[in-house]
Backbone:
């Protein structure tokens, strides 16, 4: 039997994504966000509060990078979500993480995160409580340490953080239990 829990955020898992931008003075700002994901095959969607420094920076620069947080940087990643760049302008510097300028967009790339998408803004949709940003992925950078034998990112090497909307924990994915577009094939036999 199911129990009613009322209205609450109930999507699991949520990726822990790190949005990196430059402000008007070229200072690196990084924000931890769970309310974003793929929009289609080549675009991402970020759902940001209008008051965030990241939101202002994205509007100013028209670009951002989006990194996948990993377990070895959970403390730094969480801190970048706890502290506002509006109140602590040097919050990124305090983490000890390093950044270099993207070769493809006007945004920083955090060196320590294993996968980073370089994105240019294609659309901003303003609502009173949320700013939706659609970003076109122009390139993906991945550390050699997370690339498998097939030349693609190997999720078992990535050790990506996922956010638990129910109890606000961070987790890493477990074992692979199936293959997309193949595991369900057992039900296709009767249709052929």
Residues:
């Amino acid at each position: 039997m199911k129990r009613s829990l009322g209205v609450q955020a109930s999507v699991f898992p949520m990726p822990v994504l790190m949005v990196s931008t430059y402000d008007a003075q070229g200072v690196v700002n990084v924000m931890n966000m769970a309310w974003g994901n793929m929009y289609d095959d080549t675009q991402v969607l970020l759902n940001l509060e209008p008051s965030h420094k990241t939101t202002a920076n994205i509007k100013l620069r028209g670009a951002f990078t989006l990194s996948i947080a990993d377990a070895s940087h959970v403390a730094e990643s969480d801190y970048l979500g706890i502290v506002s760049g509006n109140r602590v302008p040097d919050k990124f510097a305090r983490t000890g993480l390093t950044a270099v300028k993207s070769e493809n967009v006007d945004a920083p790339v955090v060196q320590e995160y294993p996968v980073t998408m370089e994105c240019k803004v294609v659309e901003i949709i303003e609502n009173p409580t949320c700013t939706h940003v659609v970003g076109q992925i122009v390139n993906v950078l991945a550390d050699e340490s997370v690339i498998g034998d097939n030349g693609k990112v190997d999720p078992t090497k990535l050790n990506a953080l996922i956010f638990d909307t129910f109890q606000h924990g961070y987790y890493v994915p477990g074992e692979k239990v199936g293959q997309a577009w193949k595991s369900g094939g057992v039900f296709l036999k009767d249709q052929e």
User: Anything to note?
Assistant: The mean pLDDT is 93.
